Amino acid sequence: MVHFSVRSCLIFVFVLAFLLLVESSNRVVEVNVICNKTENPSFCLSLLNSKPGGAVGEDLVNLTRYTIDVVRANVTNTIKYINRLIKNSTSDPKEREHYQLCLSQFNYALDAAEYTQQMLNSRNYLNVHVAASDVMTDADLCALGLSSSNPPFHDASLLAKYVSIVDQIVQIILIMTNYLMH
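Above: the chain sequence. Below: its structure as tokens.
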């Protein structure tokens, strides 16, 4: 005769729930699957495979955390570059205004990148996605050259390349958060 107690059933339910929680939080998605959804798969593969210890078989949350760290470092480097551009800008007021606008936008992007990390740590994947989108939007506003000057300032520096790299990294984060949310 099998004897089931309420206590035994509750323990079983809690163990099962715990195992499902652990399983859902340790999702692994193949790097190729993620990167094939980006505009530049070779960039994505290079970035994700640069993770110390490699990306193959890596938990998706940890891989997202690594990628957020990379975007934060790139935003920080872009801010340093913009500060050099401001320091070296000559007498062209449009140039100075453009770089100051970009500095402001990238400071917002840095705040958004830090918030992205906080949201990932709290497993709020929707807000990770939203905050990562904010990083891209802030970077793109710089690239558009929006200012009070008409026509907008044409930037001949390498700043557009910096913005492009940030955008590509954020695109990877957005794809990974889509997997985390579903």
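The radius of gyration is 22 Å.
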